UniProtKB/TrEMBL annotation:
Pfam families: Sulfotransfer_1
Family annotation (InterPro entries): P-loop_NTPase, Sulfotransferase_dom
Enzyme class: transferase
Gene Ontology biological process terms in this record: sulfation
Sulfotransferase domain mapped to chain residues: 50-311
Protein name: Sulfotransferase
Lineage of the organism: Eukaryota, Viridiplantae, Streptophyta, Embryophyta, Tracheophyta
Length: 314
């Protein structure tokens, strides 16, 4: 990390993170040193194109799933999900097909080669709205935000952190994770400020920011994938609606199909994380299997207070 970044990072308020290092509070959000470096480099160097599409999530909100759906949706003329044979999603994890700006492209370099990426370029990010590069906010590029209910997000985060923790550290007690989450201390947290930033942007600029919910996608994926295609300016044609293109994409990207693929059972990502860690249960309401109702009420109470007046209920 450049010395100036290091000096700034070490001057910021710190908290122990969920794994082995520390988070620092930068402009209201908790960041690891990797995220901090990637975000600042991206802010300084990324030039958004008006046709770019950015998938934005708070970690563990269903990024892996929506990356796959977006990739399949945007590349449907080239790769048919129905004739599943040649589709890149069958041999590559969606994180390898749709890079994160700050965690892949701008992590170790100021000017990654983006020339090979066909238009519309599809990227992902966990950056809070207020930390997005200015060019993203100024250009006509589109942002798709996926939000997930905080109790399931928290439980998914807790499981994931435990997998990432070195064995000798043992598991992080769920109560300790909950205390951190409820104080806003999580990757790119506070969770509620991350969500609120994009929720407000989606109300102010509905043509630029689409706000989606994991739970709604689970209940009626057909409707929401069509909504996504309309928003991105690539609506499904009548013929595609007749010939099962939507169903093909949804089936290919389903939890059951994706989690059974060899690449998602045995692969590893550049971070060292195993691809199977991104496919745990993929269900709504799984939090009840790990948290008491009092713990659930604690998250509900925090959300009620923090989201008050926003019109958003999670
Ligand atoms: P659980 O831990 O609750 O199972 P992210 O991709 O943002 O890291 O989020 C991971 C969560 O999304 C995990 O939740 C994972 O199981 C779920 N997930 C992954 N692929 C999915 C899919 N195809 N459909 C639904 N949920 C999926």
């Amino acid at each position: 990390m450049p010395q100036a970044f290091k000096d700034l990072f070490s001057s910021l308020p710190s908290e122990e993170d969920w794994i082995t290092a520390s988070f620092r509070l930068y402009q209201g959000f908790w960041l690891s040193s990797r995220l901090f470096k990637g975000i600042l480099t991206c802010q300084n160097h990324f030039q958004a194109h008006p046709s770019d599409i950015l998938l934005v999530t708070s970690p563990k909100s269903g990024t892996t799933w929506l990356k796959a759906i977006l990739f399949a949706l945007l590349n449907r003329a080239k790769y048919s999900a129905n004739s599943q044979r040649r589709h890149p999603l069958l041999t590559q994890n969606s994180h390898d097909l749709v890079p994160f700006l700050e965690l892949n492209l701008y992590l170790g370099q100021e000017n990654p080669d983006l020339t090979a990426i066909a238009s519309p370029r599809l990227f992902a990010t966990h950056m809070p709205y207020s930390l997005l590069p200015q060019s993203v906010r100024d250009s006509n590029c589109k942002l798709v935000y996926l939000c997930r209910n905080p109790k399931d997000t928290f439980v998914s985060m807790w499981h994931f952190a435990n997998r990432m923790r070195p064995e000798e550290k043992g598991q992080i007690p769920i109560q300790e994770g909950l205390n951190k989450f409820c104080r806003g201390v999580s990757v790119c947290g506070p969770y509620w400020d991350h969500v609120l930033g994009y929720h407000k942007a989606s109300l102010d600029m509905p043509e630029k920011v689409l706000f989606m919910m994991y739970e709604q996608m689970k209940v009626d994926p057909h409707v929401h994938v069509r909504r996504l295609a309309d928003f991105l300016g690539c609506p499904f044609s009548k013929e595609e609606l007749r010939d099962g293109t939507v169903e093909g994409i949804l089936k290919m990207c389903s939890f059951d199909n994706m989690s059974a693929l060899e690449v998602n059972k045995c692969g590893k990502l550049w971070t060292g994380a195993e691809t199977k860690w991104f496919f745990r249960r993929g269900e709504v309401g799984d939090w009840v299997n790990y948290m008491s109702s009092e713990m659930g009420e604690r998250i509900d109470g925090v959300m009620e207070e923090k989201l008050h007046g926003s019109g958003l209920k999670l």
